[in-house]
Design brief:
The complex is a heterodimer of chains A (141) and B (77).
Chain A: E1 15-16, E2 26-30, H1 36-50, E3 55-56, H2 59-63, H3 67-75, E4 78-83, H4 89-96, E5 102-106, H5 122-139
Parallel strand pairs in A: 2-3, 2-4, 4-5
Helix pairs in contact in A: 1-5
Chain B: E1 2-7, H1 12-28, E2 32-37, H2 40-45, E3 50-51, E4 53-56, E5 59-63, H3 69-72
Parallel strand pairs in B: 1-2
Antiparallel strand pairs in B: 1-4, 4-5
Classes of the chains: A alpha/beta (141), B alpha+beta (77).
Chain lengths: 141, 77
């Protein structure tokens, strides 16, 4: 554990939350689906993590019913869920476990069309990141 | 006999969670064995990416938080 007693930093290891009690646990989940909007959700979540806005977590852990990961989402102060499209897969993963402490962003709601086989652009990712920053600012005050 | 596991590498919050868990178990009159899991690989195998965490009979009950003994007590039942 490399970053004990501080703000969790991007890492492939477990992070310690022994910072101040006032520090909120912010987790970031992306649908990471196969279309361009899935790629955007994934890249936006990673960008936010590298900015230090939160820690990206595996949505598949919820889908796969990994009990420790479900409890992690339940105990977080803020879960930011980035879905690519109106299928709401990421949101539904939370709903299925009765986890309600999340806020959702839907990429297609920002006017970005869902297309298969097309790479996303940095501008599109930036658009989602901007909205996410605003949502997180509201949630973490 | 309840198996209580404190997952964490030994930071002050991990120690506090262990203290509160023991206090809760004693207050509830529960027979228990307390294990401190400090190996990060073992912690991650349990699906926990943030510590401290509490597992009761293998089920993760708390992640990244240190509830007081009163709040822990119902988790031990």
């Amino acid at each position: 554990m490399s970053d004990c007693c501080g703000t969790p930093k991007p890492t492939n290891e477990a992070s310690c939350c022994c910072g101040s009690d006032a520090e909120k646990i912010v987790l970031l989940y992306a649908c990471s689906g196969g279309a361009n909007v899935g790629e955007i959700s994934d890249k936006a979540a990673r960008e936010l993590m590298f900015e230090g806005k939160g820690t990206m977590f595996c949505l598949a852990g919820l889908g796969g019913d990994i009990q420790g990961m479900v409890q992690t989402a339940r105990d977080a102060d803020v879960n930011l869920v980035i879905d690519g499209c109106p299928m709401d897969c990421a949101k539904k993963a939370f709903d299925r476990h009765g986890i309600t402490n999340y806020t959702q962003i839907k990429v297609t709601d920002l006017g970005i069309e869902k297309v298969k086989g097309v790479r996303c652009t940095d501008e599109q990712v930036g658009q989602v990141v901007t909205v996410a920053r605003e949502k997180l600012a509201e949630q973490t005050v | 006999m309840k198996k209580l596991q404190i997952l964490g590498t030994g930071c002050p919050k991990c120690k506090k969670l262990a203290e509160n868990t023991e206090a809760a178990a004693k207050a509830a009159g529960i027979e228990y064995e307390l294990e401190k899991v400090t190996d990060i690989n073992e912690i991650m195998k349990m699906g926990v990416m943030m510590t401290p965490a509490l597992a009761v009979d293998g089920e993760i009950k708390v992640v990244g938080k240190v509830p007081d003994a009163d709040a822990i007590k119902p988790m031990l039942q």
